[in-house]
Amino acid sequence: MKSYKEQHKPASEFETRSDYLDHELQIMKPKRYRLNLPGRDFRFEFEDLVPALAGTLGIIAMYSSVMMAWAKGLTEAWDHVTLGKEFAIEVSRVEMLIPALLFVVLASGFINPRANLAGNHGPMIPLIASIALAGAHPLALAILIGILGLLLSIFKGGSRLVNLTSKGVAGGLLIFLGFTGALSQIQTMQTWGMGLESSTVQAGSMGFLGLVILAVTVILYSYLARIDKRWLAIPACAITALIIALIGGASFDLQFTTQMGLPNLNPVHWWGSTEEGWMLGLPNAQHFIASLPFAILAVAMWSPDFLGHRIFQEMNYPKKTEKVLMDVDDTMTMCSIRQMVGTAVGGGNITSSWGTYMIPAAIAKRPIPGGAILLGLMVMAVAVLGSPMDVAVWPPVRCIALLVGVFLPMIEAGVQMVKRSACAQAAGICVFTAMVTNPVLAWALAMFLDNNGLIGDKDRAKSLSIVDKLVIPLSILIVCISAILTVGMLKGTYGIQALL
What we know:
The chain is mostly helical and 500 residues long. It has helices at residues 4-7, 17-27, 49-77, 85-95, 98-111, 128-133, 138-154, 158-164, 167-195, 207-226, 233-247, 267-271, 285-300, 302-316, 328-344, 355-363, 368-385, 387-392, 395-417, 421-436, 439-451, 466-487, 491-494. It is globular and about 70 Å long. It has 23 helices and no strands. Keywords: Membrane, Transmembrane, Transmembrane helix. The chain crosses the membrane at residues 49-70, 131-155, 167-186, 206-224, 231-252, 288-307, 368-386, 392-411, 423-449, 469-490. InterPro entries: DUF3360.
């Protein structure tokens, strides 16, 4: 069988650029866990810049948003903790250096191009405040996610979790998290606009600016969706929001304080002291118990997320390109290891398959490795430069990037999943339970009821084994309820005291 290098032809021999890109995908034979080299196994094309740029802008906004959410939540939950913007930026820079080098450039670029990049778990962002208030610890959460993810990847459990979580339950969960996150970002934008104040501008007099940015974002996002260019939403809408904010007179609110250079890459600085870094110390048994239900939920939501990205490739790639499609279990392995390593060195990201890279890469008809290498180098460059991080955490940029890159797509995907009345019933129960308790318990309870035909599609239960109907869902439900009661997650809402 001829190698990629032997079958490669210059673009000039094809009638169209699209034909050339199709041919490149069809002749590639990426090696799993072996060295893949540019020229021999893949090539760089200018189309690789599209997903690399989109992924870079998306991950800067999302990493900073995750760390800002951790900073706010932990400051409220822990009496001795005071974390702010400077902390969030520095930890984000740590995440953008070591994991980017190890798991983007080296892992997905050279070692296993079948594994999609380990990026950000967007659906978990609106849950971070709840995670912090529940008494969880970022490092404990990372270790649990990594262990559960590795177990699933080893035993090929990704597809099984997809079968256990029906479209109705998954759709309800996405709708709830999407609306919760979207409302949070809209409120942040409104608060930011009303709070703008300088020597020449009275506080509250520029409240309209947030509304203008949101209105333009909706119009631009709708137009991009109309012309099938939604993969441009993050860079286009974030840059537009930045321009409108500057033209509207909010430039005095944008302050560049992050200096060029490297952040502190010593893990002891972040986890070994209670006076600097996270100020949390190392996790104890109660932290692991509090983190467990969220770790289960995060890993459970990996499978549909991963498969969704793979399906996006299948929709845009030509036939006979199975060898370049992302492997779900390999991606889960990389995400699990990256989760533990990235947090151990001082980070706090909750990782998943990198959608803001994969979606534009699939549309541009490009395989994983070339764009992954470019993306990793871009992300590392931004982390060293420093000042782009200040722009990324500025509310007009950060909130809009999250709205169009995470929460609006979550709502849309959720609505798409509940077209049938049976799915809508399961989704409704999931949303209601999430409102009454929390999304973790809502997912576990709705999955158990749905798999046993008590809600949703009654015929679904007939196709599932006893293990899938009772053993696994009931075990997960018991674990979630036990963990929630143990840490007192319902104390603030219903006054139920923690068992510990």
